[in-house]
C-alpha cells in the first residue's frame, strides 16, 4: 500500500499491525492530521537539513548512551537515534493510561510494604514463599524498616505496548532505577526548536513542569523538617552508560551530583564532602544497584557506594529513592502476579492488562512453552535492557536448542510470553516515511501523599526493519511523545 504525500510517493506497507498514524485503509487518524500534513509537505532536502540539525544538537549537548557489544573490545559512545515524527496520543486515551498506571504503581508499592513487613500475601497464598525469599533482589536487611512516607518507588518506568487489536498491555515494570527521563525532556526541547509551528499549533500537554514534580517528590521524602532539604543524585560516575542522564537531572532539578567517594557516614548520618566542609544529605536519589550501595551491608568490595548508608537509613536520617529491595517488584516472574496484587491490595479490577505470561518453574507451563519456543519470547527474570532474551520467530534452530537446554537446567530463571504484534509508527528515513515497531515507557513519580505521571513518556523505536527490540542498549531509538491537551 502507498501513501500519496503532497510532494512525493512513499511506500508504506500496513500489513497486520496496528499503526499509530494510519487506519487500515490508510486514512490518517484524526489526531495525526496536523503532523502528517506538516511532514508530507516538506521536501526531502528540508527534511535532511532538519535531521542534520537534530543530530548536531544531540551531539553538542552530549545526549549520548554507551553501547556495550560482545564483539567490540571497547564500549561505543553514541548519540541516541532520535526520529523527528512524534508519537501522538489523544487526551481521552491518555486519561485511561494514567488511571491504569497509577493503579498499578499503588498496588506494587503495597506489595513491597507487605514483602518487608507482614508478608500477608504469602500467608494468603497469593505468591509462593520461595518466589520472595529466593529472589535475587529480596533484601532481608529491609525487613521491618518503615521507609519515609511508605514510598518504595519514587520513580517507576512502566513499559507499555499496543497489540494488533489496538489495546494497550503492560510489558514489564522497571522499578529499581528506570532510565530515559533525559531523552524525554531533551526530545521535547529539540522538537520545540526545530518544529515550533507544529508544536505550538498542536495544543500539547507540557512535560517541563514534570521536573518540578520530580524534585517535589524527592523533597517530600525528607525525614528532617527542613524547608529546603538537601537532595543528591548518586551516580556510579562518568563511565556509566546513563551518566548523561544523571548529570542532566541533577542540573535541571538543582540537586547535588555525587559519587560514593564524595559522601561519608558519621554518627549514622550521610554528609557531602565539600570545599566549605560537610553538608548533611536528607534525600539520596541513587542510580546504582543495591549490590553496590553499601559495602558494609551488601557487596563488600564495592567502590561505588557509601559505607554505613544502610545504618543511616535504618536510623531514619536519610531517605533513599528508590528504596533498597525494590527490585523484587520488577522481577519478571513477580510481574505475572501484578493483576492479582491489584485485586488483593486495592480490591479493584486491573485497568491495564499484562501480556499473557508462562512461569517456567511450573512443569505444565514449561512443557507447553518448550514445545512452542519458535512462537515465544523467553526472558530471564532478573535481567533487563533486552539482555537474556530469546525471540522465537527470529531465532535460529541452534539458539532455540540452547535456550531449551537452559530452561530445563534452571526453569525458575525464565518466563515466556507469546510474541506480541507491537504497534508501529512511521519514522523518517531518507526523506520517506517507513513503519517501525514501537513501545512506550511511561514514568510515574511518587512522593509522600502525591503522584505524578509524566504526560506521554518515552516512545522507543526498533529502528531495524521487522525488529521487535526497542532497547537503546540493543540499538533502538526514540521519539517525542505528545499527549494532546
UniProtKB/TrEMBL annotation:
Coiled coil: none
TM stretches of this protein: none
Superkingdom of the organism of origin: Bacteria
PANTHER family associated with the record: BLR5612 PROTEIN, SLL1039 PROTEIN
Biological source species: Paenibacillus piri
Residue ranges annotated for the Circularly permuted ATP-grasp type domain, each copy included: 86-462
Pfam name, any one: CP_ATPgrasp_2
Name recorded for this polypeptide: Circularly permuted type 2 ATP-grasp protein
Amino acid at each position: 500500500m502507498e501513501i500519496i504525500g503532497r510532494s512525493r510517493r512513499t511506500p508504506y506497507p500496513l500489513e497486520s499491525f496496528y499503526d499509530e498514524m494510519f487506519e487500515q485503509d490508510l486514512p490518517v487518524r484524526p489526531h495525526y492530521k496536523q503532523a502528517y500534513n506538516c511532514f508530507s509537505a516538506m521536501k526531502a532536502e528540508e527534511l535532511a537539513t532538519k535531521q542534520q540539525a537534530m543530530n548536531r544538537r544531540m551531539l553538542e549537548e552530549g545526549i549520548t548512551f554507551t553501547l556495550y557489544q560482545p564483539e567490540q573490545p571497547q564500549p561505543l559512545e553514541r548519540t541516541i537515534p532520535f526520529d523527528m515524527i512524534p508519537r501522538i496520543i489523544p487526551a481521552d486515551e491518555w486519561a485511561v493510561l494514567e488511571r491504569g498506571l497509577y493503579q498499578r504503581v499503588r498496588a506494587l508499592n503495597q506489595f513491597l510494604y507487605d514483602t518487608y513487613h507482614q508478608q500477608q500475601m504469602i500467608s494468603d497464598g497469593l505468591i509462593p514463599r520461595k518466589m520472595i525469599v529466593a529472589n535475587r533482589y529480596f533484601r532481608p536487611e529491609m525487613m521491618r524498616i518503615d521507609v519515609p512516607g511508605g514510598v518504595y518507588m519514587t520513580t517507576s518506568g512502566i513499559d507499555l505496548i499496543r497489540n494488533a487489536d489496538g489495546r494497550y498491555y503492560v510489558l514489564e515494570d522497571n522499578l529499581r532505577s528506570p532510565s530515559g527521563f533525559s531523552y524525554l525532556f531533551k526530545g521535547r526541547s529539540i522538537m520545540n526548536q526545530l518544529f515550533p509551528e507544529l508544536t505550538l499549533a498542536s495544543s500539547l500537554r507540557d512535560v517541563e513542569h514534570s521536573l518540578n514534580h520530580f524534585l517535589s517528590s524527592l523533597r517530600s521524602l525528607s525525614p528532617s523538617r527542613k524547608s529546603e532539604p538537601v537532595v543528591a543524585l548518586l551516580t556510579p560516575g562518568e563511565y556509566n552508560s546513563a551518566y548523561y542522564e544523571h548529570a542532566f537531572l541533577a542540573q535541571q532539578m538543582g540537586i547535588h551530583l555525587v559519587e560514593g567517594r564524595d559522601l561519608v557516614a558519621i554518627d549514622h548520618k550521610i554528609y557531602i564532602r565539600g570545599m566549605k566542609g560537610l553538608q548533611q544529605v536528607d534525600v539520596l536519589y541513587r542510580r546504582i544497584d543495591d549490590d553496590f550501595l553499601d559495602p558494609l551491608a551488601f557487596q563488600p568490595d564495592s567502590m561505588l557506594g557509601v559505607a554505613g548508608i544502610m545504618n543511616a537509613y535504618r536510623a531514619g536520617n536519610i531517605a533513599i529513592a528508590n528504596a533498597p529491595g525494590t527490585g523484587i517488584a520488577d522481577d519478571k516472574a513477580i510481574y505475572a502476579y501484578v493483576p492479582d496484587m491489584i485485586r488483593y491490595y486495592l480490591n479493584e479490577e486491573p485497568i491495564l492488562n499484562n501480556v499473557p505470561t508462562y512461569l517456567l518453574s511450573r512443569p505444565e507451563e514449561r512443557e507447553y512453552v518448550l514445545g512452542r519456543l519458535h512462537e515465544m519470547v523467553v526472558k530471564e527474570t532478573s535481567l533487563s535492557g533486552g539482555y537474556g532474551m530469546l525471540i522465537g520467530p527470529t531465532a535460529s534452530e541452534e539458539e532455540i536448542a540452547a535456550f531449551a537446554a537452559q530452561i530445563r537446567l534452571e526453569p525458575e530463571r525464565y518466563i515466556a510470553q507469546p510474541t506480541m504484534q507491537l504497534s508501529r509508527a512511521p519514522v523518517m528515513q531518507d526523506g520517506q516515511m517507513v513503519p517501525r515497531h514501537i513501545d512506550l515507557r511511561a514514568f510515574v513519580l511518587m512522593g509522600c501523599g502525591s503522584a505524578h505521571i509524566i504526560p506521554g513518556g518515552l516512545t522507543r523505536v526498533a529502528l531495524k526493519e521487522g525488529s521487535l527490540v526497542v532497547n537503546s542498549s540493543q540499538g533502538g531509538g526514540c521519539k517525542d511523545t505528545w499527549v494532546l491537551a
